[in-house]
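User: structure tokens for this one?
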Amino acid sequence: MATFEYNALTSAGRLMKGTIEAGSRDEADELLRQMQLVVNSVEKAKPRKPKTAIGRNEFMLFNQQLASITRAGIPLERGLRELANDVDSKSMRKLVEAIAEELEAGVSIEDAFEKRQKRFPPLYGRILKAGVETGRLNEMLTSLNRHLEMATQTRRIIFEAMSYPAVILTLASIILTGLFLFVIPQFGPLLSEMTGSELPALTRLFLNLAANVVPFWIIVGLIVAAIVALFMVLSTFTAGRRFKESLLLNMPVIGRVYHSSMLCRMAEAMAIMVASGSDMPASLRLSSGATGSEMLMFESEALAGHIERGDNILEAGQFCNVIPRLFLYSVQLGAQRNELQDNLYSLGQMYAEQARCGQSRLQAVLLPAMIIGVGCFIAMTILAMFMPMISIITSLSAS
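Assistant:
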């Protein structure tokens, strides 16, 4: 069935516009005539643009405002209405108003957000439902905002740590390309004439690079394009996403930051699920799903299965590589002492601190390493061009 837009007149002569579903244009025309309409035009409707998720910053602001409203004791439906009046974005205002209308009509909060799961982060509806039922909505929203701030800070620091070296590398590449295209080739005949013999190996290497600088960049571009295409293909299936994640986890410094941030999100999400009354298997599945990590979801699913069969979480986690033993031990100890929620929050704080330390280390290491690397290459280029002259000067001094 397709959707058609029509323009028609009623029996009273009033203009009427709308849409109708039919198998073909002729069928749509016939359906409209059966409705006693005089059809002016029937055209196939243009496909609507898919609704996209709201922006990260916009959602963080919304969640923070909602937490403030619930802290003040305002009912959720009324709070959403008040929020809608303060939102600048028209699409966000309509979205919040639609949710408020459904809640006022008796639709559950989980169902209202589940209908819009493409617009909001995973589990948001369940978090709100759990918060309302347990009377800890403000605490849960604040915890979620801490997750989002942590993730945003990690992305920002990684972006800053990568962007400065990228700018330096780009400028260095432009300068070196100009040097290899226009300056170094002029040295070849001159150095051969001056020395009258075979040039040093390093000099010949850089002269050959200068002669092939354009093909070199073409090959580099093709390699980069192939890597991007490969990663896009890997993102389309579960095993490929796990492989990408394993590469990221094995990267120096960046891998540790990502791992700590991921565990922090899982610990705090699990604490929220435990507070909402979820059992251990459900908490593991839902909290790992909230992180978006395929490897965490795989291990958590296996752990949940073992626990449902009556196994101990510490013994069941012998196979885990991504979830550390300390995490499992703390969960088991918390469950035994009835302090699971507190232990999970403590784990979240510990991993958040580890991530912050890793972020600082990333900033301190990556930029100097890139500058040193570029500087060494430029120094080698200069040395290669002056080595024949140094040899001539040395031989003249010896004679």
